[in-house]
Amino acid sequence: MFPLKAATRPVARQGLWVGFATGLYGLSFGALSVAAGLNVWQTLLLSALLFSGGSQFALVGVVAAGGAGAAAVAASSLLGLRNGFYGLQVARLLQPRGWRRAVAAQLTIDESTAVALAQPDDERARVGFWATGLSVYLFWNAMTLAGALLGNALGDPKAWGLDAAASGAFIALLWPRLGTRAARGVALAAAVVALLATPLVPPGIPILLAALVAVLAGARPGLAGRSDVLDETPAP
What we know:
This protein has about 240 residues and is mainly α. The protein contains twelve helices and no strands. Helix 3 runs antiparallel to helix 4.
């Protein structure tokens, strides 16, 4: 799907490792989904078709708490809306056509977008997106199956640290992007908005509000574009 040149191989390896780390979190989802009352096939279809970790956990969380199907879908959809923001950047970057457009839409998630936007040029960004998206998809679905089959044999997924695997990988990707004063300011403002909103609004809304902070910051003339913030002189 993309050429692997000498300059792009490190990016592909990075995507593979991000996929592996994120995929481990699928063990937790598979086990929790079955514990919530879904069967193995339903759990697998959620990972294969919905393929958005936060949305999947929100859905099974509502189901486990006895919520109605409509409430589960609403909570899942709120968290999934963030992928729409990602799609705006990814579509511009990849410019996919035909069947690749549908595949790219399915693979547009936190990790694939983060790896792509962290690259210094478009070629490596494209390799980063595809390598990460495909590896996350494969590992996530494989580990979902393992978690669903093992079920309660895993015990509490938090005891294994699986609840932090995806978050840790995402923070590791985000950290190098905070080398400038502008980037740190946007990240801090988004974090504060999310924290303040969490006890006041339904699940999913804080993430959207935090994303809106970044969108508004990116709309400023001095911060527009992916490379502007990267090229800005780091603060002393």
